[in-house]
Amino acid sequence: MVGLILALDVMDRNRAIWLAREVSEYVDYLKVNYPLVLSAGIEIIRELSEIKPVIADFKIADIPYTSSLIARKAFENSAFAVICHGMAGSDTLKAVLDVSDEFGGEVYVVTELSSESEFLRKFSDEIAMLARDIGCHGIIAPATRAERVAQLRKIVGSMKILSPGVGAQGGSVEETIKAGADYIIVGRSIYTSDEPKAVARDIYERIKGLEV
Ligand code: C5P
């Protein structure tokens, strides 16, 4: 199964809802991040969940207790999954996993960012091993460096790999899927387009054309 995730980094509730509806037949999940939640309130997760399951990309990276509170807010508002920073360490990931278990939710772990990420890159293999060993559901790996997606795939086996960085950040849909990603995360290429539905359809068809 390969698919598309829309990164909804817009700052307006109505625009977010409109975009989500517009592309819903081509996306598997909606990903919300701080720009939207800080603008529209956390209730936006619940509203969007009525259209598609929502991944709360809060890049949780705090001490275990605080991290668990953040995760709980996301799941209480109907998030399907949360994204955690693996750099926070095993105790934080375990605390977030415990909360996700209560809600039947999932936890995805950032290994390295799709941007320069020069510090995380030194540890991203170890972060992926940790995410695998403690039972997280997936990792975030950079579409901007397909060779890293391939390497991380070797480490995580059948865990989900979600890859941001296609389009605006320069990553390629085809190279990222061939390297082993399950889901491509795309934001600006879709939501800044005059025809978001057509762009989402094009990416969806390219992804599905590569499905083995
Ligand atoms: O607009 P664009 O397609 O570049 O959006 C990428 C999305 O993925 C943003 O929400 C960004 O925060 C997120 N992300 C990323 N790299 C990571 C993790 C998340 O670009 N490693």
TrEMBL record:
InterPro entries membership: Aldolase_TIM (IPR013785), OMPdecase (IPR014732), OMPdecase_arc (IPR047595), OMPdeCOase_dom (IPR001754), RibuloseP-bd_barrel (IPR011060)
Domain Orotidine 5'-phosphate decarboxylase per the UniProt entry, residue ranges: 3-203
Phylogenetic classification of the source organism: Archaea, Methanobacteriati, Methanobacteriota, Archaeoglobi, Archaeoglobales
Family affiliation: Belongs to the OMP decarboxylase family. Type 1 subfamily.
Family matches, as Pfam families: OMPdecase (PF00215)
Active site (UniProt): D57, K59, D62
Protein's GO biological process: 'de novo' pyrimidine nucleobase biosynthetic process; 'de novo' UMP biosynthetic process
Protein purpose: Catalyzes the decarboxylation of orotidine 5'-monophosphate (OMP) to uridine 5'-monophosphate (UMP).
GO CC annotations on file: cytosol
GO MF entries: orotidine-5'-phosphate decarboxylase activity
Binding site residues for substrate: 9, 31, 57-66, 114, 164-174, 187-188
Pathway this chain belongs to: Pyrimidine metabolism; UMP biosynthesis via de novo pathway; UMP from orotate: step 2/2
Quaternary structure and partners: Homodimer.
Keywords tagged on the record: Decarboxylase, Lyase, Pyrimidine biosynthesis
EC number of the protein: 4.1.1.23
Class of enzymatic activity (EC top level): lyase
Catalyzed chemical reaction(s): orotidine 5'-phosphate + H(+) = UMP + CO2
Name of the protein in its database record: Orotidine 5'-phosphate decarboxylase
